[in-house]
Amino acid sequence: MAEVRTEVDVRVDGRAAASHHAPPAGRRDSEASKAAIIRAARHLLARHAHGDITLKAVADRAGVSAPLILKYFGNKDALFSQVMSFEADADTFLDAPVDDLARHMVLHLLTGQAERGADPILRIVFAPLHGEQGDILRDNFRVQVAQRLTERLSGPDAGLRAELAVGMLLGLGVMYGIARGAHLRATEIAEITARYAPAVQALLTPR
User: Which PROSITE patterns match (predicted)?
Assistant: First the structure.
């Protein structure tokens, strides 16, 4: 006799299939906690000198305990070495064909600020706050963002064009996320992107 599958069977099987591919709850919680810690550390790094930031302050901001930060990252220096890296952000920020890269970067920058209060590159603006750590931030930014963008471009003066384009993006990020320009914040992200991206793209495309 053929097996009869009911609607309940399908739903249960669907849940089972989904849970088979989903990471265990403990792993999801661990990744969420790590992400919250990174976000908290970035938030504090944009407002305080590196030397003034304590693990307790990061923990309080992230809603976790300081020992949990030590468990995940080992120590403060290891945590902030990740916070000061642009590698993972650049992977996403630069993830588009060159002929559509400006639109992608502008949209990614504004969406991150509007939806998550996060920006892939803006923390470089706060490098002067951090003394020697600021030099690390600058070096990372130069290699992981500006140089990677330069390597994507063809034609003359690729390095200059890349740095000019990044400068335009930083300016937009400052005006939208820090100065919080009233007209910018009142305008749809799609419209800002449509107006701003062509100017950035003109720098990415060789004349």
Answer: HTH_TETR_2 (PS50977)
Q: Residue 66 belongs to a domain with what CATH number?
A: 1.10.10.60
pLDDT band at 25 (very low <50, low <70, confident <90, very high): low
Task: Please report, for residues 33, 34, 64, 117, the alpha-carbon distance to residue 28 in angstroms, rounded to integers and kept in the order given.
Answer: 9, 10, 15, 22
pTM given for the model: 0.76
Q: How far is CA 101 from CA 77, 131, 160, 201, in A?
A: 33, 33, 17, 7
- Rounded CA separation 45/111 (Å): 21
pLDDT tens for residues 33-83? Answer: 988 998 888 888 877 888 889 999 999 999 999 999 999 999 988 898 888
Residues 60 and 98 grouped into a single domain: no
The whole-number pLDDT of residue 27 equals 57
Give the largest Cα separation in the chain, rounded: 77
Q: How many structural domains is the chain composed of?
A: 2
Nearest Cα to 41, choosing from 91, 75, 90, 3?
A: 75
Quick one: residue 186, left, alpha or beta (phi over 0 = left, psi -120 to 50 = alpha)?
A: alpha
Closest CA to 51 of 80, 73, 83, 85: 80
Distance CA 88, CA 93 (A): 9
Whether 16 is covered by a domain: the verdict is no
Q: 82, 103, 119: which is the final residue of a domain?
A: 82
